[in-house]
Design goal:
By secondary structure, the chain is mostly beta strands. The protein has a single domain (about 10-185), classed as Lipocalin. Helices cover about 5% and strands about 55% of the residues. It has an eight-stranded antiparallel β-barrel with strand order 1-4-5-7-8-9-10-11. Strand 2 and strand 3 form a beta hairpin.
Amino acid sequence: MTSAPAAEPTDLTAGSWVIDALHSSVGFSVRHLMVTTVRGRFVEINGAIVIAEDGAQSVAAEIAIDSIDTGNETRDEHLKSPDYFDAAQFPTATFVSTRVRADGNDCVVSGDFTLRGVTKLVDLKLEFNGTNPGMGHGEVAGFSASAVLSRRDFGVGTDTPLDTGGVVLGDKVTITLDIEALKQP
């Protein structure tokens, strides 16, 4: 069995590719009590990938913090509070690319990520999954990406100590993105 060569982001035609929130996800995972992992997602996302005629690529995206879903309403409400995301004061998180570069068969999208009013440069390891003619609504492209962030860098949560050592919530948060984008006419 042989594998097909990896799709190149340069295979995208010039224009604007809008994120289809119904077919995309922004997930996260973080250690809890030092022994398990809690997972969640943000339901409301929007943004676009723009490919210029010269092939230059840019990405801009926005996440509605209030759309957090961990499968537990009580936890979700606490995460929206000032103790964590402070969704009332900081209703969105944003990403605006500053550079896209090749990395083997994949690429790295570097950009300014803003959360809780703090902006940090973040590198997203991106896999381009290819394009498809779509199902009557136009051409679509697929992407998968991931990054590991420090929640402390963005002032999210506290370092409540455990009696047995360690803290209630780990610092490293793994972000996973599965994005489907629709080519605009």
